[in-house]
Design goal:
Elements lengths: L1 H11 L14 H5 L9 H12 L8 H11 L5 E4 L5 E5 L6 E7 L4 E7 L5 E6 L4 H4 L3 E6 L2 E7 L22 E3 L5 H5 L7 E4 L4 E4 L2 E4 L2 H18 L8 E7 L7 H10 L3 E9 L8 H4 L9 E4 L5 H13 L5 E4 L8 H4 L8 E8 L7 E4 H17 L11
Parallel strand pairs: 3-12, 3-13, 13-16, 14-15
Antiparallel strand pairs: 1-2, 2-12, 4-5, 4-9, 5-8, 6-7, 6-9, 7-8, 10-11, 11-17, 14-16
Length: 394
């Protein structure tokens, strides 16, 4: 019952007081032992709390509090900056300074217009897909608490021609919150309120899990778990570790720019999701061959520093951690793209978790794959020698 009490603290007590910050977690899940991959109960509890806490891009505060509450037990100090980027430091003053970074925000929508009948029209916040957002349940996050709604959908009986069923654009979507006028709606919501889909964490089968926002709560989870592993080996650490949960990746990699400039690390590892391509209709010749259950991926080229990638590959081999490989195009599409050119250039590398159905309410990942990422990053941190530098030309 001790673990359950801690979860309640995340959901509704202390700093997380209030209806907006409740995760509505399933009691039976918390009492059920985990047998499908070996993840420790406390870590799995943390992952579910993190994923279920709404963190729309630009409004990540609730999720960041969950993250900070967890990592403070493993850090020498924690802090946040003006826009909510959060940092947990271990072995302060060590050298080199290693930044472990992942973004906390999820794709979302925002209230844009309320029509005279009280229906709400939206703008997208990040790469949300209008076609799969129709007929979904949503939560509007207001100053006075959550407001439930549904994204309206016209029944096929009411569409006469094929062209009436064309793919919607974002401005076509409307939300019904059960009111009959703009005046009534405006008592509950206002323009600018963020909106998230009302879908939560579930175990699918074996070690596979499904949720709406693994992108990129799995990253902030992996960073936190790396800190936990390293705290147990603190006496062996030469490097200073800065674990980072940064904001606003989905709208331009913005938080990573801020915190990388502030911290000025000597080397950085970034964690994000990548597209699993092991399901029907995906062109592997175009998008590569990435499979769930075959381990995390490492990306080659571009922002990924060759010597940092080499070290990752060597450690994965030594630790028997399966590793898949990805090629880069012009950019990685992740925070790595902005961290590596900050100031005079920060040697960086991207480690990714295969994720089926990205940017949807049913993202699917392997928890066994996920657990390999903290193991790999902890090994990287422990491999660093005092004052070590990464250069492609020596």
């Amino acid at each position: 019952m001790k673990d359950l009490a801690r979860v309640e603290n995340w959901r509704g007590g202390n700093r997380l007081q209030g209806p907006l910050l409740r995760c509505n977690l399933n009691f039976e899940f918390w009492m059920r032992p985990w047998h499908n991959g070996g993840m420790r109960d406390e870590s799995l509890n943390f992952l579910e709390a993190l994923v279920n806490t709404p963190s729309p891009t630009g409004y990540e505060t609730r999720g960041q509090r969950v993250w900070l509450d967890y990592v403070k037990a493993f850090a020498d100090e924690t802090f946040s900056d003006a826009y909510g980027n959060c940092v947990a430091v271990l072995n302060k003053g060590g050298s080199p300074k290693l930044m472990l970074a992942a973004h906390a925000d999820e794709i979302a929508m925002g209230v844009n217009y309320i029509d005279p009948e009280g229906f709400i029209y939206v703008k997208k916040m990040g790469g949300i897909d209008p076609a799969i957002t129709k007929a979904q349940r949503v939560i509007i996050h207001t100053r006075n608490g959550p407001v439930k709604g549904v994204v309206g959908n016209v029944a096929p009986h009411l569409t006469r021609q094929e062209e009436d069923r064309k793919l919607p654009k974002m401005h076509d979507l409307f939300i019904d919150i059960g009111v009959s006028s703009a005046k009534e709606a405006e008592k509950l919501v206002r323009v600018g309120d963020p909106i998230t889909l009302n879908d939560e964490f579930e175990l699918l089968r074996n070690d596979l899990a499904v949720a709406r926002a693994f992108d990129n709560r799995i990253g902030t989870f992996a960073v936190a778990e790396t800190l936990r592993l390293l705290q147990r080996s603190k006496g062996k650490l030469q490097a200073e570790i800065c674990a980072v949960s940064n904001v606003q990746e989905e709208v331009g990699l913005l938080g990573a720019r801020q915190i990388a400039y502030t911290l000025k690390p000597d080397v950085a590892l970034v964690v994000d999701v990548t597209h699993a391509t092991d399901f029907p209709t995906v062109n592997k010749a175009q998008h590569g061959n990435v499979k769930i259950g075959q381990g995390p991926t490492v990306t080659h080229g571009g922002c990924n520093h060759a010597e940092v990638v080499n070290r990752i590959e060597e450690l994965a081999k030594a630790k028997n951690i399966p590793l898949q490989h990805e090629a880069i195009s012009n950019t990685s599409g992740t925070d790595t793209d902005v961290i590596f050119w900050t100031r005079g250039g920060i040697p960086s590398a991207l480690i990714s978790l295969p994720n089926r159905y990205m940017h949807s309410p049913v993202e699917v990942v392997s928890l066994a794959d996920l657990e390999k990422i903290p193991e790999l990053m902890a090994a990287f941190a422990l491999s660093l020698k005092k004052g070590e530098e990464f250069k492609v030309i020596i």
